[in-house]
């Protein structure tokens, strides 16, 4: 890891200022993607801006039909929160499946979602539930947020502050984890909402995406059988030493069926 | 860039200057000479560097020393000593929960946190709770037995 300037601002405004004034600034939340990337020299920022000194960026609030989760809330806090467990249990379960215990104690929801790793779990929950991503200057719909591999609609220096999750009628998340890293080889999040079924798939393609074919089938009839014969295009899938594109395409339907079964 | 960090390690207040890119495990091992905490993979996978940060198990290779300002850190040295072993250390010895011993400090720190926060300890909970710690010798069997045994003693 190369040397860098370390800053610990006390407010969002100060953090933005530091970012703007830096040659190559980066925000530090839990650091569980950023620090390994810096060790491997995949990232070598001149300035690291630690968000931990800013109040109000962590915690879970139950506000009517929405759960608001602060950007710095650790995965373990979401996984073990009695509010999340009762209002959106699938989201608590998703958080409990990330990495391992030590990683869940440090990794944050804001860090994970901003990073948009193609194999991360949270993007499936955010897109599947149709959440709203709140930043220092605006609110972005999940449908517009995840734009490409490791890319989001966040502008340079824009800071994710919290995520608003509308409570679904029911939801389930099922993943096929990489046996070593626990990253999602394929993870499928299905939510039944007032405006229909949403199916979000992570791990399979360069970025999390919705399967409109599966959504149409499940809106017609919410059953495992409704997904029979639906095959996603392997040409759109990732291929690596863990799974070929064809295998990932196959797993999408298998995981989706399992998620539906959990909801019946 | 040099930074100043003040933290509490094993009950003692420590203040020192270090480069900004110093990780917590480097601070513990190189500066405080607390070499009980090991570095296995240095990539957040093996768990040999696990310590408690404000009471929770974390991988100290993936935390900057700067992030620990004002924090309480407990390492394996702070858990017990040769004459006064922690029940988890005693159980690893009794159950032969180690062979080469390299992963053991991290295993023990993770296991203590697991027993503190899980209301019901059983084999499945232990195996899932220790997913962030890798042992290449034991096949985990005796580690699981050790944690089960220690959990009973810690609860009494």
Explained architecture:
The complex is a heterodimer of chains A (264) and B (156). Helix content of chain A is 33%, strand content 25%. Chain A has 264 residues and is α+β, with helices and mostly antiparallel strands. In chain A, the strands form four sheets. Chain A has a five-stranded antiparallel sheet with strand order 4-5-10-6-7. A four-stranded antiparallel sheet of chain A has the order 11-12-13-14, sandwiched between helices. In chain A, strands 1-3-2 form a three-stranded parallel sheet, with helices on one face. The mean pLDDT of chain A is 97. Chain B is α+β, with helices and mostly antiparallel strands and 156 residues long. Chain B has a five-stranded mixed sheet with strand order 2-1-5-3-4. In chain B, β3 and β4 form a beta hairpin. Chain B starts with a strand and ends with a helix. The model of chain B has no long low-confidence stretch (mean pLDDT 97). Classes of the chains: A alpha+beta (264), B alpha+beta (156). At the A-B interface, α2 and α6 of A face β4 and α4 of B.
Report how far apart the termini of chain B are: 49 Å
The CATH H-level superfamily of the largest domain in chain B is Beta-grasp domain
Tell me the span between the first and last alpha carbons of chain A.
49 Å
Task: Determine and state the CATH class of the largest domain in chain B.
Answer: Alpha Beta
Q: Give the C-level CATH assignment of the largest domain in chain A.
A: Alpha Beta
Q: In percent, how helical is the residue content of chain B?
A: 25-40%
Radius of gyration computed on alpha carbons of chain B:
15 Å
Q: State the CATH architecture of the largest domain in chain A.
A: 2-Layer Sandwich
As a percent range, the share of strand residues of chain B is 15-25%
Helix content range of chain A = 25-40%
As residue ranges, the low-confidence spans of chain A are none
What profile does the largest beta sheet of chain A have? Answer: 5 strands, antiparallel
Strand order of the largest sheet of chain A: 4-5-10-6-7
Could you say what the CATH architecture of the largest domain in chain B is? Roll
Number of helices of chain A: 11
What's the number of structural domains of chain A? 2
Task: Give the SSE string of chain B.
Answer: EEHEEEHHHHH
Give the DSSP E fraction of chain A (strand runs of 2 or more residues).
Answer: 25-35%
Could you name the CATH topology of the largest domain in chain B?
Ubiquitin-like (UB roll)
């Amino acid at each position: 890891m190369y040397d860098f300037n370390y800053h610990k601002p006390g407010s969002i405004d100060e953090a933005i200022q530091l970012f703007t004034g830096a040659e190559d600034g980066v925000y530090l939340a839990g650091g569980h993607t950023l620090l390994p990337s810096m060790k491997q020299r995949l990232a070598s920022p001149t300035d690291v801006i630690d968000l931990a000194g800013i109040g109000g960026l962590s915690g879970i609030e139950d506000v009517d039909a929405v759960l608001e989760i602060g950007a710095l809330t650790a995965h373990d806090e979401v996984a073990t929160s009695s509010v999340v467990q009762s209002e959106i249990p699938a989201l608590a379960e998703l958080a409990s499946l990330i990495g391992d215990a030590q990683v869940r104690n440090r990794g944050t929801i804001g860090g994970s979602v901003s990073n948009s790793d193609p194999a991360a779990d949270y993007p499936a929950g955010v897109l599947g539930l149709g959440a709203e991503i709140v930043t220092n200057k605006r609110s972005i719909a999940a449908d517009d947020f995840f734009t490409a591999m490791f890319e989001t609609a966040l502008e340079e220096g824009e800071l994710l502050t919290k995520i608003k999750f509308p409570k679904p009628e029911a939801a389930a998340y099922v993943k096929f984890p990489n046996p070593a890293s626990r990253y999602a080889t394929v993870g499928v999040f299905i939510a039944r909402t007032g405006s229909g079924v949403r199916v979000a798939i992570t791990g399979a393609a360069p970025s999390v995406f919705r399967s409109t074919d599966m959504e149409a089938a499940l809106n017609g009839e919410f059953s495992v059988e409704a997904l029979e014969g639906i095959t996603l295009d392997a040409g759109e899938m990732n291929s690596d030493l863990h799974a070929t594109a064809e295998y990932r395409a196959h797993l999408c339907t298998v995981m989706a069926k399992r998620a539906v079964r959990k909801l019946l | 860039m040099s930074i100043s960090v003040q933290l509490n390690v094993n009950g003692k207040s420590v203040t020192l200057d270090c480069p900004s890119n110093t990780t917590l495990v480097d601070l513990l091992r190189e500066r405080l000479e607390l070499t009980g905490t090991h570095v296995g993979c240095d990539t957040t996978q093996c768990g040999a560097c696990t310590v408690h940060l404000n009471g929770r198990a974390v991988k100290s290779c993936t935390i900057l020393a700067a992030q620990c300002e004002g924090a309480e850190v407990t390492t394996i040295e702070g858990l017990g000593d040769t004459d006064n072993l922690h029940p988890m250390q005693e159980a690893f010895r009794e159950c032969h929960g180690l062979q080469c011993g390299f992963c053991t400090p991290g295993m023990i720190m993770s296991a203590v946190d697991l027993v503190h926060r899980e209301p019901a300890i059983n084999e499945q909970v232990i195996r899932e709770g220790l997913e962030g710690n890798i042992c290449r010798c034991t096949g985990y069997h005796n580690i699981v037995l050790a944690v089960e045994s220690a959990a009973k003693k810690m609860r009494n």
